[in-house]
């Protein structure tokens, strides 16, 4: 069994969540819109999951809109909000996921102005730039809670307070944060928050937008009027149930998970430092406990990844969504990382099932590979 | 016999156990749980292979090329993507769309949205049997028409539109043709090339696959362009971003593979059961079949029971799970807009029941259902002042009602 | 839609279904609603010399809530004077049956039906009285 260290790309479904889902594929197969017993059972299951997801992020169940994925949630937040408002200023963080950056950019053709909030070398928003932008009173700001590549965590509650004080709407992509660190929707002050099930050991194909009712949004998907008209389409009942179960488990395990991930991460980072000539991105910033993103000069990341895969180590250079591109990561570029170092970037993301042995196996494989690669390029290790 | 007896297969179907088994291999730690977009390791590659195999299975059922298959979250998204996507891309060429009043809400509401954005939409009336008069379609088409959207099989009354004939018209005039085929996969043979369909919406959960996954078929030759509605990582060749749910794609692929393999025999078995139900219910006085019986899928029977109100009938039939029309609108008190479009009067539209039979329906269940319906219709008619008046020979259409 | 147990009980065992003789001067008939709206209620009361409703019958074309509302109403009006029966409010019916908001109109219809039946009875009595005076 290869070692899987790419949990920020996707996680395996928790077996307990699968247990919860299975009945809703076969014997409890009703359409929640049907009024008969099968339909009502499905509706009840969706409502229960809605409560579980709401609990994970301390939201009210009525604020949960189930979607087909995290990307859809962010599209709904940004484009749904924009559709009901006069074109104005939309600001996004420089290290946003394409599921936020692309819908934002798509609004330009409708007359929206899109501003990018720069980050410092640690990946954190630059306070002075933010203050300057807030003075322009943006209609909406979207900044991710935690970055998928570096794991850098932004101070969302502080930002949300400022945005709201300026009369704007705050959206956050919390796809990578929820289930890994404490995320409190109500206390954070954000009005819109995107979540995804498959990043927290739930199934793929289901996400949610948590939406404060004060924010009006036009639906993206129109038709049957499901989710109170905010998202039409027959509910993915089994998927939603799996999301609910995974959210519940994540909430219950949060403290334990955090502690275990932190200890794996600290182990890994001290081993990496021992290898030398390695830069850990965002090392000074507040980060997710499970994510280590690092780079090395003179190493081609792609080659290294493929060699590591052959050694049975599954990791990535960053976002899975962008893995077909070969340019250095836009996230690392935005942080001002030297392209040569960014080119060799590797992301290790631990998950609930990761162990000390995984760290050992990874370090051993990396050491071997680096030795070979650097020999080829004429550099010595350390 | 498990009660309630499920006779609502057009609302949704259970996942076939064979499909569920296959899906389970792509979820947990001991399966292929990888993200199909992960390029740097075997977890990702294996997931991608599974998605591509599923894509080929979906394509095979409708005679398409796998490259023409775009994964979505379901037929509602496919309909939205097709209609808004075409409008977005071809809006400069023309701003007129033709569709039919009996389309699914996902098509109608997408069209209404476009009307708000300055497009013009012609909503054709179907004939009383539910079918489109092609001359009316031709007459409605204009030089600035960019899209015709007509569903293959109607979700409420099960009538089959002649897609090949419509496709011939649209192709001749260089107009794009979209069809919502959510209700027809596995029930009617589909060949997108023979039918000249340019865009087709498909759903998994109406054909024994999982809920939450669908497909939009987008023709490549001649090439059809759409403007993406979901932006992000650029998945599905930029047409639809969002992580692909491997197990969902696999489930849809397997469900469609089974459908292709088994549909010929399955349709005949189901037709036998439907005809048995029909023969039995026809014995009740004052019942009407809604929609054409001949150009109709084998599994659908939609009947109006005059002088009985539909919701109370459904309540009386609590041992059978049926619907008074489309599941998507069943929470509303409005009579079915589909039946209204056929010219059915309000009373008959209010008293309709849709029975839809499926893979796991047995003859015993059909006989039980038929008996129960007969018994309850008699009971409710005893309660019905309208039935009483009808028996007294009063013409209800001439009565002045104290409407509230 | 989730129905309360009381609605289900009245729906499954409706009380006082039937017909009273329309031509009987002691009988008042009220018919309200319209088939196009999905419900028609026919409510009949038989009033004795003391002005007390001694019998009530109904027939309803409509959803479960409409049937339950009219069934409950026939139970309530029996033994009441027509004045008392005329004071029954739809909110009481809706409350007793725990009707969901979308079904409140059923209780409104029931209130309309008893009012119509009483009015019909009173019209008949008035005509009868005037006839009697004339004779």
Automatic annotation (TrEMBL), chain A:
Residue ranges annotated for the Aminotransferase class V domain, each copy included: 3-362
Gene3D superfamilies: 1.10.260.50, Aspartate Aminotransferase, domain 1, Type I PLP-dependent aspartate aminotransferase-like (Major domain)
GO molecular function: cysteine desulfurase activity; iron-sulfur cluster binding; metal ion binding
Domain of life: Bacteria
Family, as annotated: Belongs to the class-V pyridoxal-phosphate-dependent aminotransferase family. NifS/IscS subfamily.
PANTHER family: CYSTEINE DESULFURASE (PTHR11601:SF34), CYSTEINE DESULFURYLASE FAMILY MEMBER (PTHR11601)
Protein name: cysteine desulfurase
Organism the protein comes from: Candidatus Muproteobacteria bacterium RIFCSPLOWO2_01_FULL_60_18
Automatic annotation (TrEMBL), chain B:
Cofactor needs: pyridoxal 5'-phosphate
SUPFAM superfamilies from the UniProt entry: PLP-dependent transferases (SSF53383)
UniProt keyword Cytoplasm, yes or no: yes
Keywords, comma-separated and alphabetical: 2Fe-2S, Cytoplasm, Iron, Iron-sulfur, Metal-binding, Pyridoxal phosphate, Transferase
Aminotransferase class V domain ranges (all copies): 5-368
Cell compartments where the protein resides: Cytoplasm
Protein's pathway: Cofactor biosynthesis; iron-sulfur cluster biosynthesis
Residues annotated as binding pyridoxal 5'-phosphate: 75-76, 155, 183, 203-205, 243
Binding, [2Fe-2S] cluster: 328
Key word Transferase present: yes
PTM sites of type N6-(pyridoxal phosphate)lysine: 206
A GO BP entry: [2Fe-2S] cluster assembly
Gene Ontology cellular component annotations, sorted alphabetically: L-cysteine desulfurase complex
InterPro entries linked: Aminotrans_V_dom, Aminotrans_V_PyrdxlP_BS, Cys_deSase_IscS, Cysteine_dSase, PyrdxlP-dep_Trfase, PyrdxlP-dep_Trfase_major, PyrdxlP-dep_Trfase_small
Residues the record marks as active site: 328 (cysteine persulfide intermediate)
EC category: transferase
Enzyme Commission identifier(s): 2.8.1.7
One Pfam family linked to the record: Aminotran_5
Family classification: Belongs to the class-V pyridoxal-phosphate-dependent aminotransferase family. NifS/IscS subfamily.
Protein task: Master enzyme that delivers sulfur to a number of partners involved in Fe-S cluster assembly, tRNA modification or cofactor biosynthesis. Catalyzes the removal of elemental sulfur atoms from cysteine to produce alanine. Functions as a sulfur delivery protein for Fe-S cluster synthesis onto IscU, an Fe-S scaffold assembly protein, as well as other S acceptor proteins.
Subunit structure as annotated in this protein's UniProt entry: Homodimer. Forms a heterotetramer with IscU, interacts with other sulfur acceptors.
Identification of the protein by name: Cysteine desulfurase IscS
From TrEMBL, chain C:
Pfam families: NifU_N
MF (Gene Ontology): iron ion binding; iron-sulfur cluster binding
GO CC terms: cytoplasm
InterPro entries from the UniProt entry: ISCU, NIF_FeS_clus_asmbl_NifU_N
Single GO biological process annotation from the record: iron-sulfur cluster assembly
Domain (NIF system FeS cluster assembly NifU N-terminal) ranges: 2-126
PANTHER family given in the database record: IRON-SULFUR CLUSTER ASSEMBLY ENZYME NIFU HOMOLOG
Function as written in the Swiss-Prot or TrEMBL entry: A scaffold on which IscS assembles Fe-S clusters. It is likely that Fe-S cluster coordination is flexible as the role of this complex is to build and then hand off Fe-S clusters.
Family classification: Belongs to the NifU family.
Protein name according to UniProt: Iron-sulfur cluster assembly scaffold protein IscU
Protein source organism: Candidatus Muproteobacteria bacterium RIFCSPLOWO2_01_FULL_60_18
Organismal lineage: Bacteria, Pseudomonadati, Pseudomonadota, Candidatus Muproteobacteria
């Amino acid at each position: 069994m290869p070692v899987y260290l790419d949990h920020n790309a996707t996680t395996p479904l928790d077996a307990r969540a699968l247990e919860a889902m299975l009945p809703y594929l076969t014997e409890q197969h009703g359409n929640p819109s049907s009024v008969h017993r099968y339909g009502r059972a499905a509706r009840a299951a969706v409502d229960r999951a809605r409560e579980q997801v709401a609990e994970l992020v301390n939201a009210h169940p009525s604020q949960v809109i189930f979607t087909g994925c995290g990307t859809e949630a962010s599209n709904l937040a940004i484009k749904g909000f924009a559709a009901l408002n006069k074109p104005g200023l939309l600001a996004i963080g420089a290290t946003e996921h394409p599921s936020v950056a692309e819908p934002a950019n798509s609004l330009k053709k409708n007359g929206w102005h899109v501003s990018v909030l720069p980050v410092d070398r640690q990946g954190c928003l630059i306070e002075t730039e933010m203050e300057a932008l807030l003075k322009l009173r943006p209609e909406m700001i979207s900044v991710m809670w935690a970055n998928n590549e570096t794991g850098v965590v932004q101070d969302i509650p502080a930002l949300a307070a400022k945005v709201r004080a300026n009369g704007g709407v705050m959206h956050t992509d919390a796809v990578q944060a929820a289930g890994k660190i404490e995320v409190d929707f109500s206390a954070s002050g954000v009005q819109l928050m995107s979540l995804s099930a498959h990043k927290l050991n739930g199934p793929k194909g289901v996400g949610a937008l948590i939406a404060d009712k004060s924010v009006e949004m036009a639906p993206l998907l129109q038709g049957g009027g499901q989710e109170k008209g905010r998202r039409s389409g027959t509910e993915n009942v089994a998927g939603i149930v799996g999301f609910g179960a995974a959210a519940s488990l994540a909430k219950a395990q949060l403290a334990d998970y955090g502690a275990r991930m932190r200890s794996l991460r600290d182990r890994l980072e001290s081993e990496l430092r021992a290898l030398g000539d390695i830069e850990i991105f965002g090392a000074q910033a507040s980060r997710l406990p499970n994510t280590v993103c690092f780079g090395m000069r003179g190493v081609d990341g792609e080659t290294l990844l493929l060699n590591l895969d052959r050694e049975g180590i599954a990791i990535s250079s960053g976002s899975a969504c962008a893995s077909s591109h070969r340019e250095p990561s836009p996230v690392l570029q935005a942080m001002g990382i030297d392209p040569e170092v960014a080119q060799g970037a590797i992301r290790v993301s631990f998950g609930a099932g990761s162990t000390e042995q995984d760290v050992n196996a990874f370090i051993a494989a990396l050491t071997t590979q680096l030795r070979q690669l650097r020999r080829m390029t004429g550099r010595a290790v350390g | 016999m498990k009660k309630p007896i499920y006779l609502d297969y057009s609302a949704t179907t259970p996942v076939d156990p064979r499909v569920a088994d296959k899906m389970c291999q792509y979820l947990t730690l001991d399966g292929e749980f990888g993200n199909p977009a992960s390029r740097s390791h075997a977890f990702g590659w294996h997931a991608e292979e599974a998605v591509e195999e599923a894509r080929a299975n979906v394509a095979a059922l409708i005679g398409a090329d796998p490259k023409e298959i775009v994964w979505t979250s379901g037929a509602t998204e496919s309909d939205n993507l097709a209609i808004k996507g075409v409008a977005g891309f071809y809006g400069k060429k023309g701003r007129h769309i033709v569709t039919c009043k009996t389309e699914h809400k996902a098509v109608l509401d997408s069209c209404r949205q476009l009307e708000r954005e300055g497009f013009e939409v012609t909503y054709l009336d179907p004939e009383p049997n539910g079918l489109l008069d092609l001359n009316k379609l031709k007459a409605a088409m204009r030089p600035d028409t960019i899209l015709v959207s007509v569903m293959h099989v109607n979700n409420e009354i099960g009538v089959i539109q002649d897609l090949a004939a419509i496709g011939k018209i649209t192709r001749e005039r260089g107009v794009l043709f979209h069809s919502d085929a959510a209700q027809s996969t596995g029930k009617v043979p589909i060949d997108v090339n023979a039918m000249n369909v340019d865009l087709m919406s498909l759903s998994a959960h109406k054909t024994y696959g999982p809920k939450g996954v669908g497909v939009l078929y987008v023709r490549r030759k001649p090439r059809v362009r759409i403007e993406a509605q979901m932006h992000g990582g650029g998945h599905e060749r930029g047409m639809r971003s969002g992580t692909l749910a491997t197990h969902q794609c696999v489930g849809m692929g397997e469900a469609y593979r089974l459908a292709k393999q088994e549909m010929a025999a399955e349709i005949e078995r189901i037709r036998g059961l439907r005809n048995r139900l029909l023969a039995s219910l026809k014995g009740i006085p004052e019942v009407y079949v809604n929609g054409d019986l001949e150009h109709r899928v084998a599994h659908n029977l939609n009947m109006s029971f005059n002088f009985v109100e539909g919701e109370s009938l459904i309540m009386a039939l609590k041992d059978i799970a049926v619907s008074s029309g489309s599941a998507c609108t069943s929470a509303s008190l409005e009579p079915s807009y589909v039946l209204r479009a056929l010219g059915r009067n309000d009373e008959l539209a209010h008293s309709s029941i849709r029975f839809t039979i499926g893979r796991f329906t047995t003859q015993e269940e059909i006989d039980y259902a038929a008996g129960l319906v007969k018994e309850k219709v008699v009971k409710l008619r005893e309660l019905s002042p309208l039935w009483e008046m009808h028996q007294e020979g009063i013409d209800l259409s001439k009565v002045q009602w104290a409407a509230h | 839609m989730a129905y309360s147990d009381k609605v289900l009980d009245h729906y499954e065992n409706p009380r006082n279904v039937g017909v009273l003789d329309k031509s009987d001067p002691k009988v008042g008939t009220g018919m309200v609603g319209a088939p196009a709206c999905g419900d028609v209620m026919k409510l009949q009361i038989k009033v004795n010399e003391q002005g007390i409703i001694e019998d009530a019958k109904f027939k309803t074309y409509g959803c479960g809530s409409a049937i339950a509302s009219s069934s409950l109403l026939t139970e309530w009006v029996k033994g009441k004077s027509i004045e008392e029966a005329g004071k029954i409010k739809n909110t009481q019916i809706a409350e007793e049956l725990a009707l969901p908001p979308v079904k409140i109109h059923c209780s409104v219809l029931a209130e309309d039906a008893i009012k119509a039946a009483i009015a019909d009875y009173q019209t008949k009595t008035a005509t009868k009285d005037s006839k009697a005076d004339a004779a």
